[in-house]
Amino acid sequence: MKQQLLAGRFGPDDQADIPTTQDEQRTFLQMVAGEKSLDHGIGGALTSLKKLGIFPSEIGIDLLVVAAHVHAADTRISRAEQSQDSWTREIRLVVPVSEPVLWTHAIPTLTKALNFLTGDRWTIGFRARPPRFAAIAKEAPPTLIAPPFDAVSLFSGGLDSLIGAIDLLQAGSTPLLVSHHGEGATSDAQNTLFAGLKKHYDKSSFERLQVGMKFKRGLFNGVGDENSTRGRSFLFFALGIFAGTGLGRSFALQVPENGLIALNVPLDPLRLGSNSTRTTHPYYMARWNELLVELGIDGRVENPYWDKTKGEMMIACANETLLRDLTPSAFSCAHPGNVRWLGKEGRWKEHCGCCLPCLIRRAAVERAWGTGGDTTTYTVPDLASNRLDTRKATGKQVRSFQYAIARLRGRPQLANLLIHKPGSLADEAAHLNQLADVYRRGLDEVARLIDGVETRPN
After folding, report:
1. Beta pairing partners, 455
2. DSSP annotation string for 159-174
3. Higher pLDDT residue, 24 or 145?
4. Is 204 exposed, middle or buried (CB count within 10 Å of its CB: 0-12, 13-18, 19+)?
5. Cα 25 to Cα 28, 62, 93, 124, 223, distances in angstroms
6. Alpha helix positions (H), 295-431
7. Choice between 355 and 229, residue whose per-residue pLDDT is larger
């Protein structure tokens, strides 16, 4: 096992030497396709935004280049092979940027965010882009008509981001929705939901930026790939900020996520950091806002639903009729491949029904619309029809929820302590009681769903 070094290059003539230590394996990431086109979806994103009258800044482009390095390392370095504890990897990045001095000052905040998000140990350095790519950003041409977008919101294809978009559109906002698509299930959901929104809000000028970013398998010689993708939200946030820098005004990137998932308190003692995502945790969001200040970007990231459960989000949605119509097409499942493992024909609308996000989704729909109100197709349609095996995917998360619910029922005040387990809430000192309360209410929603469900072994 060696520490992995990923060093970016801009074009075939960029031959900058990046020294390695004795314990490092070096891999180069080419950011340019051919002679001058930016690769990995970045060039396409710039073209798509140009058509919308949006011209991201140099620092915005830098941020997406940094995110490409993070995403490549995160998805192409196997945790099982390249860590001593089967989780924590040691990764060093050397990234070409427009202003290396500015980025170097931001390294402490950047590494705090990445270490917290992925559970790895990141070391990051910056160098100047080669002269041919010193300036990439284009200035907006003189025009009397500014882009119509007054909001930027992440649009993942899930239910929470759908509610976020509906609420913005119902309020008369003109958002730019930002999507990253990976596997077909996610991309199909995004396309279907966007088409549904476009049909309903046909008088609005809202649009979407959809970017796909993948890296070839075997990018790191002799190193297996990784499927956990804990760093994906860094790319997702970076896409939103990248687009926001082209609006020419102060902006807020909305990251719609229910409070239970955002906190992601471990459900049982065995559900430790490696099993708990931190993609919208308050600590991580706060580090992003620090980073934007340090980079001189006039924007913020915000979660407008941090104090609401998923069911409460559905109940308060500004257009219930449209939400009911589109909910079956919103994709929430953490394991879209499960339908194939269970011998079913894989369809993107079919959820496994028993992973953590599926359970929270089912509980939310039942809370909002009652029993029978959920028309989503689930591989396990009735959780109570058979005793669920906790040694398998169908029962593992249900049993974890049962444990957490029983623990809190016996001692409700534990919520005030448990919310601190996933990470520091020092930035949220004024909201601790509200965070503890949304955690309790979120578990109560799931408790109603799984009441009477039997699991084994005990």
Report:
1. 388
2. HHHHHHHHHHHHTT--
3. 24
4. middle
5. 10, 24, 12, 15, 10
6. 310-316, 320-326, 338-341, 356-369, 393-410, 415-418
7. 355
**Which of 155-159, 265-269, 400-404 comes out lowest in average pLDDT?**
265-269
Contact between 326 and 380 (Cβ < 8 Å): no
Site of tokens 């809202």 = 206
Task: Name, in order, each residue with C-beta under 8 angstroms of 169's C-beta and a sequence gap of 6 or more.
Answer: 175, 197, 201, 204, 206
Nearest to 119 by CA among 219, 225, 228: 228
Per-residue HEC secondary structure of 270-301 comes to CCCHHHCCCCCCHHHHHHHHHHHHHCCCCEEE
Cα gap 194→171, rounded to integer Å: 17
How many other CB atoms sit within 10 Å of the CB of residue 458? 5
Q: Which residues pair with 154 in a beta bridge?
A: 178
- The tokens for 122 are 């990141």
CB 323 within 8 A of CB 314: yes
Q: How confident is the model at residue 410 (pLDDT cuts 50, 70, 90)?
A: confident
Q: In a 10 Å sphere around its CB, with 0-12 CB exposed, 13-18 middle and 19+ buried, how is residue 107 labelled? A: middle
d(CA 86, CA 442): 31
Tokens read off for 156: 């993942």
Which candidate, 216, 218, 219, 174, places its Cα nearest to that of 197? 174
The whole-model pTM stands at 0.94
User: What are the pLDDT digits (tens) for 6-37?
Assistant: 999 999 999 999 999 998 999 999 999 988 89
Cis peptide before 148 (omega within 30 of 0): no
Strand intervals (E) in 88-240: 90-97, 121-128, 151-154, 175-181, 207-212
Nearest to 82 by CA among 176, 175, 220, 190: 220
Strand partners, 87: none
- Checking if the pLDDT of 342 tops 70, the result is no
- What value does the mean pLDDT take over residues 253-275? 81
Q: Does the pLDDT of residue 424 top 70, yes or no? A: yes
What does R_g of the chain's alpha carbons equal in angstroms? 22
pLDDT band at 346 (very low <50, low <70, confident <90, very high): very low
- In this structure, are residues 415 and 263 in contact, taking their beta carbons and an 8 Å threshold? no
